[in-house]
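Field guide to reading this record: the first block holds the primary sequence, the second block holds the structure written as discrete tokens, and the final block holds curator observations. Each block starts with its own label. This record concerns Receptor-like serine/threonine-protein kinase, catalogued under organism Triticum turgidum subsp. durum.

BLOCK 1 — SEQUENCE
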Amino acid sequence: MKKTVFTATSCIPILILPFLSSLCQSDDQLTHAKPLSAGDTLISKGRDFALGFFSPNSSSTSLYLGIWYHNIPGHTVVWTANRDNPIAATSSPMLAITNSSDLVLSDSQGGSPWAVKNNISSMGVVAVLLDTGNFVLQSPNGTSIWQSFDHPTDTILPGTRIYLSQKARVVRRLIAWKGPTDPSTGDFSLGLDPNSNLQLVIWHRTMPYLRLNILDDASVGGGIYKNTIFYEAIAGTSRDGFYYEFSVSDGSPYARLMLDHMGALRTLSWNNHSSWTTVFEHPASSCDLYGSCGPFSYCDNTGAAATCRCLDGFESAGLNISRGCRRTKQLECGKQSHFVTLPKMKLPDKFLHVLNRSFHECTTECSNNCSCTAYAYTNLSSNGAMADQSRCLLWTGELVDTGKYSNYNDNLHLRLANSPVRKNIKLVKIVVPTMACVLILACLLVGIFKYRASKRKKRNINNGSMLGYLSFSNEIGGEHLDFSFVSFEDIATATDNFSESKQIGSGGFGKVYKGILQGDNEVAIKRLSKGSAQGIEEFRNEIILIAKLQHKNLVRLLGCCIFGDERLLIYEYLPNKSLDAFLFDDRRQYVLDWPTRFQIIKGVARGLLYLHQDSRLTVIHRDLKPSNILLDSEMTPKISDFGMARVFGGNKQEAKTTRVVGTYGYMSPEYVMGGAFSVKSDTYSFGVLLLEIAWRLWADGKATELVHSSFAENCSLNEVLRCIQVGLLCVQDRPDDRPLMSSVTFMMENESASLPAPKQPAYVGLQNFESEESRENSVNTVSITAVEGR
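BLOCK 2 — STRUCTURE
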């Protein structure tokens, strides 16, 4: 029997036994006479897609019927039939067309976990796998009876439609996998808003998680990437129903739209380097999450960081603006009001669509309704698919889930009460000419400054890069490192000249940008600010350490750049960002179920073990915390930020310094109080999150109360309790009482290993840590990380 192992994005084929190879069918049709068994596949005529049985991981004994790309290494699954009813691999599954012309998936036990009923009883009914990836049940005359495109799982292929028929109450949604290797129905779904035909919504269970902007420009969205045009359209009528469709231009490489198990919607394109490239992604920032700011406020995504702001004419309703805003002057029915235009807005949710109105009629419609708080208008005359040739949207209550984006085109017309205006004609006559003169003078000065700066930049750009390279080569002392020097000009191009739209993070060290360098490689570019506490020594330290240390659980450095006073580091791009973005976020912490958390814990432990013991030198990180643990697409943890790390050679295992660096709350007592550090300092940071409150719950026999509600249902209690006990051992007050990371990894990965009982940690312990001193005359560099309790 052939068994094929798949995940949501890849698979591991297992070779079929030789004596079965002659039985495998490779045509594109399923007929009464030719059923499909485990080990067989249907392959479309153009050999683009294959249909057969697969297993989601190497240890699974369950089989699923699915469709995947035939010519792509790794076999990416795009459709699953029996996602919630897997078949045992030993039960001889079979897909067949029955005598009643039904399409039935069955097993040797008589079970039928999936079937397509058919009202046409004919021996001429066939099922065909098309080159579009669509699996179609056809009548003898070639008409379609049923097709997989009408029942997508977690992926939309070009030509797939998601329908919404309010009259027939037919609502179809794209539903994510439950996990990376679990095809069953997950918590996230995508579909047209049943209360409107103009917008797409991602739900987490029954609650809105993300709402895509109401499609403008004739209700068509999309974009262009490497000569491929991506189309997204909503079409239809209120009588026949509406649908969302995804398509690409002719001759394009493979493309798909996928909703993953963490609620991310990605448009993916196959590139020439045998990998999938993310072209578009939602959510792209915290502003995209539903209701990230309160009523009558909006999330401003045009600056360096997403910020909640009150709409014009509103003020914060409390100390926290994210809870919403209130009017500075209340509207009163019968009294005069006016509209202010807010450009480049993501329009609010919960609107009323008024059909067939001009812009003037739309304005009048809102003005004559005392309950109307805002309106928006778009002409849809260029879209023949829409029966209504205009879009007049009205809001009559709170304005929720509103945002501002530099690449959006919608205007929101907000209704405000009129305020008395004092007119001082004499003052106006003086101020206006004066301001005009000042403005003209300022423009002249700015023009002169830009002209001189441009000439200076052109003169220095070439020799600046060379001088930076030579200077840095001297600074690192001739180290032979496996990474590239990248020109500042290439980095500026990759980040659109460090545009805000490319920024994915920031901190005291500077800003982090996402970019694409040569070869379509997605990278993260860390640009150190000129006022950063991380100086040239820490910059040099981080490059040498990361370039020399290679481990699955350490972030990979790809290159660096020095240009004048610019210092930049180029890392592999990790799409899930840092661990703290999940742990301390009320919306995202439920994504970390217990198996994922346990794998992250073990991965960090293995990374520290490599630093302390398995690498050529003993490396102490000194700043281990959740924000320095990055996560890749498979949630594999990678330790980052080695600017504060120290290296020990020979038999030296500990040292002392007057320069205490790190983050309060994660530093060991002996390090904070006396500057003494060793590998046990990192061990303390590893277990710091359990500290004194964990001891009290442990002593009272209440350790299970530490289990977070987001993963209480699917966790292994023994694993959780073992992690709690190991964590308590790691935060012991005396370094000698803490285990080495080799012992930590052994205790967590071996359930039979006996664990010593932890001692009660003191708030401040007695210093008894003798070591060879390594003193530096400099100021302490300590940061404080403020987090919200969970």
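BLOCK 3 — OBSERVATIONS
The mean pLDDT is 79.
The first helix runs from residue 359 to 367.
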